[in-house]
């Protein structure tokens, strides 16, 4: 469906909408307020799942020049330039761009938790356009160009973002050579006499498209430069199994997931090992002073699901293939960080300057902007680690139940982020794109658009529509508030609308009933010019907090 240009009285910029229903007066007022921001660039894009939020609509894409609005921002992922070389087990090295554009099977070298180098299946994709870059210089003369937030593996197995690497820091090494017969010999790390060290990390002016690999089993891969780096996170995994393996085991699987992953307000009794070893805690004392007392809780919440519309699901596609899906965020610590910075932003503006206090923004180049961006990037790492721990634990329990504990090689993996801000290039300029309840849908990029707990979900590829700033919806979108849903529906309604799905059917999740959400099929029809459907999924198990 092509967009409609909304005629909202008092708006100072165009509002392009992919919704096909009338907007309420409150929704119109919210869009009008955003359109009047002095930092707004070009227009506001409204996705088909849009509904009321705080300050701005959930499901809106807001482009700003030299400024960010903390009330509408979340996180993204780090990657490498397309010419970055990756050695494969066939004895040759390929650029990430070449791997992303080919149908070649990708088997890389990865490092296990014990430090052993193994072969692992991977997928490659373009992840960002016009990305900000740094150059990591190593003592072997290699130079690696990547985004500042991409993580490098240290010798001890922990990870550090590129921008935080220190000169002299030792990285996990990768050494290989061909023998006289042409076979590749890989030197195991425990036999290596020395490691590669960081010489410097330098910001560079050029911006480029960036790429990354997803290595579902080990979450890292070796570069030709001789070091190991982190891969992209994952939120959906296509397994090699069919529905027959689930017969008679849906309830047991749901309960096993609930025992493995704390949900709602729950947390781990003690921080799990993956949390204790996470390198991100080294930066915690540099976060906003208002969250310093939250470290213990944040450590115990790492690897937990939360509540609301967050979920773990087991799904089947139209060809009976079994998928695992996970939707989560940065838990309470992410909310705490955002709340502190939102209050700071409000204090910087006179109330008369803003159409809504929740649209207070930071101006690039100020200390407040710098502090916020630092904390935002930390929250990004926390959210990524949270998803990684949960997916890893979900896969362990799944494999115990269905494959004798043996890990399988996923056929497709997808990592999808919403509620985030990134610096991108649109209409010839570098601008900040805030996707509040929206996802990146640039050309060829995979994404996930989940429905409600009783409806379909979709794996998609973006079509790169410039009017939407290369964006699409992140779900079905609510059509009534949680309070209204609790008043309108009963437990019997919930049971009927989630028939065939193994999930909670008690009063505590009535606000997540499918009837409180828009029709996902209609939402998908309304963005047919933004995405193409790769797979249509229907959940058979849904775990919520």
CATH superfamily placement of the domain at 80-232:
Hedgehog/Intein (Hint) domain
Shape: globular
CATH fold annotation of the domain at 80-232: Endonuclease - Pi-scei, Chain A, domain 1
Number of helices: 10
| Proportion of residues in helical segments | 10-25%
Radius of gyration: 23 Å
DSSP strand (E) fraction?
Answer: 25-35%
- Describe the sheet with the most strands: 7 strands, antiparallel
Describe the structure.
By secondary structure, this protein is of the alpha+beta class. It has a domain at 80-232: Hedgehog/Intein (Hint) domain (Endonuclease - Pi-scei, Chain A, domain 1, Beta Complex), CATH 2.170.16. Helices cover 21% and strands 33% of the residues. It has ten helices and 31 strands. The strands form nine sheets. A seven-stranded antiparallel sheet has the order 24-20-22-21-31-29-28. A six-stranded mixed sheet has the order 1-2-3-4-26-25, covered by helices on one side. A hairpin with a 3-residue loop joins strand 21 and strand 22. The model has no long low-confidence stretch (mean pLDDT 89).
């Amino acid at each position: 469906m092509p967009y409609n240009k909304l005629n909202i009285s008092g708006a100072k910029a165009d509002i392009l909408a992919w919704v096909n229903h009338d907007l309420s007066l409150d929704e119109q007022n919210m869009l009008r307020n955003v359109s009047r921001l002095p930092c707004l660039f070009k227009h506001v894009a409204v996705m088909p799942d849009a509904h009321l939020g705080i300050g701005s609509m959930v499901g809106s894409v807001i482009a700003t020049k030299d400024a960010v609005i903390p009330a509408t921002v979340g996180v993204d992922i780090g990657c490498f330039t397309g010419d970055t070389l990756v050695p494969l087990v066939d004895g040759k090295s390929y650029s990430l761009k070449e791997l992303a554009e080919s149908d070649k099977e990708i088997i890389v070298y990865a490092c296990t938790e014990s430090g052993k180098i193994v072969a692992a299946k991977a997928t490659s994709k373009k992840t960002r356009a016009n990305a900000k870059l740094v150059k990591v210089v190593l003592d072997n003369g290699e130079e690696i160009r990547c985004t500042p937030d991409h993580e490098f593996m240290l010798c001890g197995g922990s990870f550090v973002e590129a921008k935080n690497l220190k000169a002299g820091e030792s990285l996990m090494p990768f050494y290989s050579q061909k023998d006289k017969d042409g076979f590749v010999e890989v030197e195991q790390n425990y036999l290596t006499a020395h490691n590669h060290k960081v010489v410097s990390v330098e910001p560079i002016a050029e911006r480029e498209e960036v790429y990354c690999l997803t290595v579902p089993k080990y979450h890292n891969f070796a570069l030709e430069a001789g070091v190991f780096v982190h891969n992209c996170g994952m939120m959906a995994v296509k397994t090699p199994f069919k529905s027959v393996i689930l017969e008679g085991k849906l309830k047991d699987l749901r309960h096993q997931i609930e025992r493995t992953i704390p949900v709602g307000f729950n947390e781990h009794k003690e921080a799990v090992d993956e949390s204790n070893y996470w390198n991100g805690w080294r930066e915690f004392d540099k976060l906003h002073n208002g969250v310093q007392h939250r470290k213990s809780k944040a450590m115990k919440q790492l690897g937990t699901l939360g509540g609301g519309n967050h979920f773990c699901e087991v799904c089947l596609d139209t060809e009976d293939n079994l998928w695992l899906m996970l939707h989560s965020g940065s838990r309470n610590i992410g909310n705490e960080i955002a709340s502190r910075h939102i209050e700071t932003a409000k204090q910087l503006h006179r109330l008369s300057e803003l159409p809504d206090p929740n649209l207070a923004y930071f101006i690039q180049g100020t200390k407040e902007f710098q502090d916020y961006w630092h904390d935002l990037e930390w929250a990004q790492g926390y959210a990524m680690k949270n998803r990684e721990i949960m997916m890893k634990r979900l896969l362990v329990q799944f494999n115990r139940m269905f494959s004798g504990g043996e890990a399988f090689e996923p056929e497709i993996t997808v990592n999808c982020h919403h509620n985030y801000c990134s610096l991108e290039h649109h209409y010839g300029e570098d601008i900040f794109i805030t996707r509040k309840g929206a996802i990146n849908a640039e050309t060829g990029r995979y994404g996930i658009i989940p429905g409600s707990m009783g409806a379909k979900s979709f794996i998609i590829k973006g079509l790169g529509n410039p009017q939407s700033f290369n964006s699409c919806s992140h779900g079905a979108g609510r059509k009534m508030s949680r309070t209204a849903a609790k008043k309108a529906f009963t437990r019997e309604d919930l049971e009927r609308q989630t028939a065939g799905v193994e999930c909670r059917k008690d009063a505590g999740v009535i606000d997540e009933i499918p009837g409180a959400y828009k029709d996902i099929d209609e939402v998908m029809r309304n963005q047919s010019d933004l995405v193409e459907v790769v797979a249509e999924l229907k959940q058979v198990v849904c775990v919520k907090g």
